[in-house]
Design brief:
The protein is an alpha/beta fold and 192 residues long. 33% of the residues lie in helices and 24% in strands. Strand 5, helix 3 and strand 6 form a beta-alpha-beta unit. The longest helix has 17 residues. It binds guanosine-5'-diphosphate (GDP) and magnesium ion. The site of magnesium ion (MG) has 4 residues, from helix 1.
């Protein structure tokens, strides 16, 4: 599968204001700053389609992108990251509710994609998110991102650890080079 075109659809504060779309959708999950927006930009080869930031926890909006390919179109939903320590507990809880509502009620989601930073161990809130997904029967595969920071050997090891821990497919990625794109598109094309 090859990407032909990608466009921004909408930024929305909640599910209600998102247009219903008749295309399979992947919801991007992960801690703030893990690299979700950079992933979108690298995947579609547009440096500024999704806003990236060095200041974690800034994006509190759902951003929808439509991706056209030579196979089938699909949607990427860039969701606000969880586990940003600098916002209040109240604000975190309120966003968590919003996120859960989106994942439970958005009809066209076919899978979530949970991002894990290759430099760190799996974090407690990653595990909590994963348990919640499993409990609600929401499909997920994992992307091990920022793989440019670690060696090939470490990548293989980390993938095995996450596979074992989460019982999901795990695909490596780095937004700093293009070598991982085919593996990601392969995973996506198997699901749409
Ligand atoms: N070295 C490296 N840096 C990355 C990678 N992906 C994202 N970053 C950096 O990590 C920071 C957060 O990325 P961003 O995409 O905004 O994360 P988000 O909050 O999950 O959307 C930015 O400074 C990015 O340049 C990657 O694969 N490799
Ligand atoms: Mg982002």
């Amino acid at each position: 599968m090859k990407i032909k075109n990608a466009k921004f659809i909408i930024s929305s504060p909640n599910l209600k204001l998102c247009p219903e779309l008749n295309m399979p959708e992947f919801a991007l999950l992960g801690r703030s700053n893990v690299g979700k927006s950079s992933f979108i930009n690298t995947l579609v080869n547009q440096s500024k389609l999704a806003k990236t930031s060095n200041t974690p926890g800034k994006t509190r909006l759902i951003n929808l992108f439509e991706i056209q390919t030579d196979f089938k179109p699909f949607i990427l939903a860039d969701l606000p990251g969880y586990g940003f320590a600098k916002v209040s507990k109240k604000e975190q809880d309120s966003w968590q509710k919003n996120l859960e509502e989106y994942l439970l009620k958005r009809k066209n989601i076919i899978s979530t994609i949970q991002f894990i930073d290759a430099r760190h161990d799996i974090q407690k809130n990653d595990i909590q998110m994963q348990e919640w997904l499993k409990h609600n029967n929401i499909p997920c595969f994992n992307i091990l991102t920022k793989c440019d920071y670690i060696s090939r050997n470490e990548i293989t090891k980390k993938i095995l650890i996450i596979k074992k821990e989460f019982q999901n497919n795990v695909v490596p990625f780095s937004s700093k080079n293009k070598q991982y794109i085919d593996g990601i598109l392969n995973e996506i094309s198997n699901l749409i």
